[in-house]
Please model this.
Amino acid sequence: MSAPRRPTDPSGLERYYVLTKGRSGPGGSASSLDVATLIVSRAAPAPGMQHEYADILRRCRDPLSVAELGAHLGLPFNILAVLLADLLQEGHVEARDPIPAHDAGRGPDIALLEEVLSGLERL
Model:
């Protein structure tokens, strides 16, 4: 009986291990990434760049959330966060808070909420 054949194209856990070079999570400033963080490319993909890094840079020409990016690439959050940490450290991408700083302290518009409530009560 022959030994089981190994796939030539790594998939699943092997693929993730190779992509992240064995790291299980991001470090440094990237540890504050969440699924709503917007990612924007600051550079074009370089020749010879790892495919996943180049794909991230191409997809993020316009701001894209980490959740959307993960869905497009088919990568779990923790794997994508490691890749983004590398790109952030090299200055290839920028991470932005999804809520602009000038709106962060402001609560909901009470007048608008009262109008909506009034409209619902009339139904």
About this structure: The helical segments are 12-20, 51-59, 66-73, 77-90, 101-104, 110-122.
